[in-house]
Amino acid sequence: MKTCAFIPNFFKLYNILWQVALPFFKKNKRLSPSFKKRVTTDHLQKADIWIQAASAGEAFLALSLLSSLEPRQKIKILITSTTSQGMEILESGLTHIKINPNIDYFLDWFPFDIPQTIQRAVTRINPRVMILLETEIWPALLHYLKENHTQIFIVNGRLSKRSGQHYRWTRFLWARLSPDKILAISPLDAKRYGHIFSKARITIMPNIKFDLMEADLDTPSEPTALKNIISNTLPLSILASIRRPEETQALEILENLLAQYPCQLVAIFPRHMHRINAWKKKLYKKRISFQLRSELTEPATTAGIILWDTFGELRSAYGIAGAVFVGGSLCPLGGQNFIEPVVLGTPTVTGPYLDDFAWAGEDLFSQNIVTICNDSQAVAHTMVTHLETPIERNKRRQKAQYYIQKNQGGTKMACQIILEAFEHEKR
Questions:
Q1: Residue among 323, 291, 326, 336 at smallest CA distance from 309
Q2: Do residues 73 and 87 make contact, with C-beta atoms less than 8 angstroms apart?
């Protein structure tokens, strides 16, 4: 790769910014446990393929790829992660998946993108192929991989509107650091990547997350897990993954639900547990009585509100709900996972802001598997309609299952491209 004066000058400034930030990172409770390994390279091993899985979501994608790769010769694969959550998922997942005997794999922390550190890391690992999952765009990493003649692929590539705008402001830099190929999960993501990396070959692929849903399709929910607190004599509505900027609108939905269909239970699941106290204050202010999930010891037999203040029960609640609204979608926040209740056959409603889930495809909405509503009033009306005219859950589940299975195949496609690149790469 030709080196122009711009890159060294940029890295001088970039390195200064890193040196200013490092003392703060070292003291950071989240970063301090892995800090030493992220600024040194002696612990790194040589690998033929390097997969970077930043956090939890990418870690699941990496596991899907690793379990599906079928190399014809022995290869070494390094999988790195940026977060402790990603590392925990990888460590746990690798004990449960079957991996081809030709693959030797090992885990490590992804180094900070400090130019000198990354240069040493790339030299030590010396990968023939680099797999960056979803949105991993680091200037020093891309530069030194290209200098090393490593083939670079962005797999399951997605780029939010906001991130795309930020990267476009600095595309004069990215034009010199283009990956070899980008496998984007939707035409919109492909377009955004194309504005940043004009020289990259960009292809559309099915989202690997559809492949990960296979387990959800085969494993029904367990409503018995909540039988001690949810009575089957009352329908259950759920306001799920409610984000702070849309709490006022969620309250409007709640009030409309209670006014239009008072004989029901409504469960509120804030997206972040630290918002429970804020929800208490809002409900007190509105003079809406509620019960905390943690305080329920017997089935709720009278209509009312449950403020869910315990972890790990949303999926079970989805499995017995008559109607669900999935938040993060009434304000431009990107949306939250509305597919999880869908695969359980639950009538699901969402708002219009679904940028992070554009990969799910328009057919999901045109086939009425999920309903998009533009405001809180429409959301409440649609949820009440679902409660008044319920459709058999199994029929909804089958419809969702067919849609998801039709969109699977991303893992297989990505693995084929990765292995072709590996086998044809000449040093």
A1: 291
A2: no
Euclidean distance between CA atoms 316 and 234, whole angstroms: 16
Non-local (6+) Cβ contacts of 247 within 8 A are 275, 278, 279, 282
Token reading at 161: 């509107």
Task: Give how far Cα 244 sits from Cα of 72, 241, 268, 329, 331, Å.
Answer: 50, 10, 13, 11, 10
Q: How long is the chain?
A: 427
Q: Which of 183, 142, 134, 178 shows the shortest CA–CA distance to 160?
A: 134
Question: Using 50, 70 and 90 to split pLDDT, how confident is the model at 427?
Answer: very low
Nearest by Cα to 379 from 388, 391, 371: 371
C-alpha 87: how far from chain center: 15
- At 139-188, the pLDDT tens digits run 999 999 999 999 999 999 999 888 888 888 888 888 889 999 999 998 98
Q: What is the rounded distance in angstroms from the CA atom of residue 129 to the CA atom of residue 259?
A: 58
Q: Cβ–Cβ contacts within 10 Å for residue 367, how many?
A: 13
In angstroms, how far is CA 232 from the centroid of its own chain?
A: 33
pTM for this one? Answer: 0.80
List, for residues 12-24, the tens digit of each pLDDT value: 999 999 999 999 9
Residue 109: which residues within 8 A CB-CB, separation 6 or more?
34, 37, 38, 80, 81, 82, 87
Query: Which carries the bigger pLDDT value, residue 261 or residue 423?
Result: 261
Q: How far is Cα 376 from Cα 379, in angstroms, rounded to an integer? A: 5
Residue 372 DSSP label: E
Sorted by where each starts, the structural domains of the chain and their CATH numbers stand as 6-213+409-424 (3.40.50.11720), 216-406 (3.40.50.2000)
Q: Assess contact for 225 and 293: CB atoms under 8 A.
A: no
